[in-house]
Design brief:
InterPro entries: Ald_DH/histidinol_DH, Ald_DH_C, Ald_DH_CS_CYS, Ald_DH_CS_GLU, Ald_DH_N, Aldehyde_DH_dom, OHmuconic_semiald_DH. Keywords: NAD, Oxidoreductase. The protein is an alpha/beta fold. It is built from 16 helices and 21 strands. Strand 13, helix 10 and strand 14 form a beta-alpha-beta unit. Helix 4 crosses helix 5 and helix 5 packs parallel to helix 6. The structure holds nicotinamide-adenine-dinucleotide (NAD) and (2E,4E)-2-hydroxy-6-oxohexa-2,4-dienoic acid. The site of nicotinamide-adenine-dinucleotide (NAD) has 32 residues, from helix 8 and helix 9.
């Protein structure tokens, strides 16, 4: 049972703003009311964007890169000071294990701010020298400037991680931001606004509006003519909708979208490590990670043994309350999302899948039966053109199939409308070098998964996204660059 319901407010021009229209925030663990959220209407979104624009002409627009770096570290300090509150808020909204919220979600929130504080402080700009036709030595150099006001729209699956992955570099580059978190996970974004306020972020530099997508705050924000760039993380079809809106005014976009990622397990792999790795890559966060492996291909000589081991490991996963000792998996984000996942469980049977394990809803015999839990599920026996092998499900489920040759598995992995991430399990270094570049994806892990160096480019191809963020790639997206040519 959650403590007394809280009211989550918007944050605009340095002030917390309530609204008459609110929506409920419901716990996915037991269906109880967590609180109410103030929904921003078009006028309030307009106020937020105007506050961001005004901030560019105010003190925030005068901050040096070093001052912005210092402020980002102060924000990271503020999150660390309230770390347990952020963990509790993320867990309340999502039902995830406390351990995950501590070691992944909130920890990455701090790391994102610290990473981009360092990067903006160290980032140099290009400078070239040439001899002009008149014999003069000419210098051409570039300078970075902010776009202005950046709209940041984030999803519910890793709320704090993904929101701060965008807020940190956007502010590091001097932009004002207007953030619109998912309606399913409003709590840590609101806490972040409190930390921004406590850190003394100049008014209008950071603004928060709560609401939904279509005909609500998300759409009002992306359609606003004073939004200079849009960074969005979410479903591919939402990205396509936002892209059409961004075309008005030719605004820059950075999209991190859906995936139908593959894990490829060769017979020469470290078997136990590969089993543990595929359990992680298929069931972390109840499979609600864009990088999760919903397709698993195993070299035929070890296929039967691997299926048996993966089945056993999946059935050993502890599903339960977020704060239970040793819990590995929590609930899905909502009943609505669980209905979507369960519809795929039914579809898989219709498409002829063999259910190796799972495929249903766990029966706890307590209030968790009012939550949004599903069983970790493994299928086999489906053809590559089955919808369950081609469409993103975004739940704790994978389909496992045998393969015989490298050429075959590369072709099958690439036979997808998506292209986000692949995980490869092999001890053969030659093979690792030769095949990894042949996958048409943004990210390949070898003998690991979701291990992140925040300086590297991150993003997807095809329906999985547009652009790369991470390291200087984020600085490039969140900056406008002017090249200046100096003739003596
Ligand atoms: N590639 C990545 O890095 C990455 C990371 C996380 C999640 N995702 C993807 O996100 C999806 C799950 O997240 P979700 O269900 O929140 O996605 P979603 O697209 O339903 O919503 C994402 C955000 O967009 C907003 N939104 C929805 N419609 C909008 C519109 N028309 N205009 C403006 N805003 C709108 C929502 O309110 C929410 O804040 C999955 O497909 C997953 O693969 C991708
Ligand atoms: O659900 C998708 C996870 C995306 C992760 C990142 O964007 C990251 O690790 O920076």
């Amino acid at each position: 049972m959650n403590p007394s319901p809280v009211l989550l407010r918007n944050y605009i021009a340095g002030e917390f703003v309530t609204t008459k229209t609110t929506f409920a925030n419901i716990s996915p663990v037991d269906g109880t009311l967590i609180g109410h959220v103030c929904e921003a209407d078009a006028d309030l979104v307009d106020r937020a964007v105007r506050a961001g624009k005004a901030a560019q002409q105010g003190p925030w627009g005068q901050y040096s890169a070093a001052q912005r770096a210092q402020l980002l570290h102060k924000i990271a300090d503020g999150i660390e000071r309230r770390f347990d509150e952020f963990v509790a808020a993320e867990v309340a909204d999502t039902g995830r294990p406390v351990h995950q919220a501590r070691t992944l979600d909130i920890a990455r929130g701090v790391a994102n701010f610290r990473t981009f504080a360092e990067l903006i402080n160290q980032a140099g700009n290009e400078c070239f020298e040439m001899r002009a036709a008149d014999g003069s030595d000419v210098f051409s150099f570039s300078v970075r400037k902010p776009h202005g006001v950046v709209a940041i729209i984030s999803p519910w699956n890793l709320p704090m991680l993904l929101l701060t992955w965008k807020v940190a570099p956007a502010m590091a580059c001097g932009n004002s931001v207007v953030i619109k978190p998912s309606e399913d996970t409003p709590s840590t974004a609101t806490l972040l606004a409190e930390v921004m306020h406590e850190a003394g972020v100049p008014e209008g530099a950071f603004n928060l509006v709560h609401g939904f997508g279509p005909n609500s705050a998300g759409e009002y924000l992306t359609k606003h003519p004073d939004i200079d760039a849009i960074t969005f993380t979410g479903e591919s079809r939402t990205g396509a909708t936002i892209m059409k809106v961004a075309a008005e005014g030719v605004r820059d976009v950075s999209f991190e979208l859906g995936g139908k990622n593959a894990a490829v397990v060769f017979a020469d792999c470290d078997f136990d490590a590969a089993v543990a790795g595929v359990i992680r890559s298929s069931f972390t966060n109840s499979g609600q990670v864009c990088l999760c492996s919903e397709r698993v291909y195993v070299e035929r000589p070890i296929f039967d043994r691997f299926v048996a081991a993966l089945k056993q490991a999946a059935e050993n996963l502890k599903i339960g309350y977020p704060d239970e000792d040793g819990v590995n998996m929590g609930s899905l984000i909502s009943h609505k999302h669980r209905d979507k996942v369960m519809a795929y469980f039914d579809l898989a049977r219709d498409e002829g899948a063999e259910v190796v394990t799972g495929g249903g809803i766990p029966n706890f015999g307590d209030e968790r039966d009012r939550g949004a839990y599903v069983q970790p599920t493994i299928w086999t026996g489906l053809p590559d053109d089955a919808r369950c092998v081609r469409e993103e499900i975004f739940g704790p489920v994978c389909h496992i199939a045998p393969f015989d040759t490298e050429e075959e598995v590369i072709r099958r992995v690439n036979d997808s409308a998506y292209g986000l991430a692949t995980a490869v399990w092999t001890r053969d270094l030659r093979r690792a070098h030769s095949i990894t570049r042949k996958f048409h994806v943004g990210m390949v892990w070898v003998n690991t998964w979701f291990l992140r160096d925040l300086r590297t480019p991150f993003g997807g191809v095809r329906l999985s996204g547009i652009g790369r963020e991470g390291g200087r790639h984020s600085l490039d997206f969140y900056s406008e660059i002017t090249t200046i040519c100096m003739h003596p």
